[in-house]
Write a structure and sequence with these properties.
Length: about 70
């Protein structure tokens, strides 16, 4: 099931986090804007639709959204 990309309160609508534009159909590239929290030295940010994930470099581990730590 897809999550709605916007929510409205009265006559004002706002895009859900990760989306922008008039119809909330443009993905925000959090990696390009560096608004993610991936480790800049040992992690690689991967933009996804409406979000982002961290990928660890060889020899490091962590979660999809955390700073990586050495094994």
């Amino acid at each position: 099931r897809r999550m709605p990309r916007y929510w409205c309160h009265g006559h004002r609508c706002k895009c859900t986090p990760g989306y922008t534009d008039f119809k909330c159909d443009a993905d925000i590239n959090e990696c390009g804007q560096m608004t993610d929290n991936c480790d800049r030295e040992h992690g690689i940010c991967k933009n996804t639709f409406g979000s982002w994930e961290c990928e660890c470099m060889d020899g490091y581990f962590g979660t999809e959204r955390s700073v990586t730590v050495k094994k």
